[in-house]
Amino acid sequence: MKGARETILEAVGETPLVKLQRVSAGLAADVFVKLEFLQPGGSMKDRLAIHLVDEAVERGKLERGGTIVEATSGNTGAGLAMVAAVRGYKSVFAMPDKVSHEKIAALRAWGAKVVLCPSSVEPEDPRSHFSLARRIADETPGAVLANQYFSQANARAYYKSLGPELFAQTGGEIDALVAGIGTGGTLTGAGRYLKEHKPACQLVAVDPVGSVYYDKFRSGRDTRAFAYKVEGIGEEFHPPSMDPKLIDEMVRVDDRECFSMARDLVRLEGLFCGGSSGAAVAGAIKYARARDRKENIVVVLPDGAAKYLSTVFNDEWMRDNGLLGGDGTVRDLLESKGGRAMITARPDDTVRHVVQTMKQHGISQLPVVGDNDRLFGIIAEVDVLRHLVTGEGHLDGTIEHLVESDYASVTPETRVDLLQGVLAEAKIALVTEGRRLVGLITKIDLIEYLSRHT
Ligand code: PMP
């Protein structure tokens, strides 16, 4: 029939672009949101799913009746499960166990098999969802691993689809594209297309507190990842699916900012979107505020609120996770420490000088900062000891090569309740704004604060 699509897959793409009215009030910039949560499979990953399956078929890796396998936090799985349902493939997904029940149930509804894996293990750990997906693909005859984290096909999907769509929809009048980064495929692919057609267009990545991307972008350091609640964005490693060289700016947001904005987008703008959409808009608003100029900022809203009704949009869950009310923020903790000056080292300090400082103040690690409080990393007693004991170095050399990354990085807005997990893993939490170190928190600081506030 005229006007009908052949299958649901022909309905993927061409999502609306809508101007924000209320949550962006007071900004010099106009902020527009790309409603990818209106895709038939529920997210922008529908674009990726069709592309990955087409490429696998073209390359002879997927044959009729074959099995599609993937490591996914839900949305890529949904897209692939939908494609599998329409085209008659089987699908199996390995997922981290922090994903919402709704996402797991949706994949099963499409006929997929779902295997849950612990969220808190390293990607290389055989128990991780990455390792398990690879194993299932290797051991299942006729199976192909979609491999969104490791394949350049990920970015290519958005280069071919989302990039041109945004360029056409904005008539080229797009000054910045803002997106949360998980695999980084959306921003890399759509961004690459936009840069080729409008080189001045800025690509802005939004990363959650707890993920490793932000520190790598700011200081080149591999810091410690720690647990956070927002789904689909942030990582604990640097996947080849993202091209960090393309990114002009990175903004960091914490769970509370993500979820509070997601709730505002639903209540105040009528946009029924999920937590990572809140993250992207919260990041875009920080970016717009810092630039304070008339420009057009486009933000990708990846998926919808329905999957998060039991979490982000449930007050009880929010309270249980310290995201409504709670113990205060890192800023409160720093203020409660009083105006005590931070003791820091510089990369060109000598080992002797640093040892003296540690001894004088009775501390076992120091942040290392350069001009304008720019953070380089930390230096720890144990590293100095190893350096001297192995005879590699002497006291009059500089500490530059001893600077290391065993710290977690947080913002002044980070919730205090998150710090317990952070400090169980890392030596120290450093508080940064942009590249600048603005505070540090040790285990004893946290104990003192909690003993006064509970
Ligand atoms: N938001 C959600 C809800 C997602 O599932 C994803 C994909 N992991 C993203 C954002 C980030 O997209 P990308 O992987 O392309 O960076």
Given helix and strand content, the structural type is alpha/beta
Instruction: Find the CATH topology of the largest domain.
Output: Rossmann fold
Task: Give the biggest beta sheet.
Answer: 6 strands, mixed
Rg (C-alpha, Å): 23 Å
CATH class of the largest domain: Alpha Beta
Give the beta-strand count. 15
Please state the second-level CATH architecture of the largest domain.
Answer: 3-Layer(aba) Sandwich
* Poorly predicted tracts of residues: none
Q: Strand-residue fraction?
A: 15-25%
Shape: globular
For the record, give the distance between the C-alpha atoms at the N and C termini, rounded to a whole number. 67 Å
Helix fraction by DSSP (H/I, runs of at least 4): 25-40%
Our count of helices gives: 16
What is the quaternary state of this protein?
single chain
Number of domains: 2
Rounded mean pLDDT score: 93
| Structure ligands | 4'-deoxy-4'-aminopyridoxal-5'-phosphate
Strand arrangement, largest sheet?
A: 1-2-10-7-8-9
Describe the structure.
The mean pLDDT is 93. The N and C termini lie far apart (67 Å). Helix 1 crosses helix 5 and helix 5 packs across helix 7. The chain has 454 residues and is α/β, with parallel strands linked by helices. The strands form four sheets. A six-stranded mixed beta sheet has the order 1-2-10-7-8-9, with helices on both faces. The protein has 16 helices and 15 strands. It folds into two domains: 324 residues, Rossmann fold (3-Layer(aba) Sandwich); 124 residues, CBS-domain (Roll). Strand 14 and strand 15 form a beta hairpin. It binds 4'-deoxy-4'-aminopyridoxal-5'-phosphate (PMP). The site of 4'-deoxy-4'-aminopyridoxal-5'-phosphate has 17 residues, from helix 7.
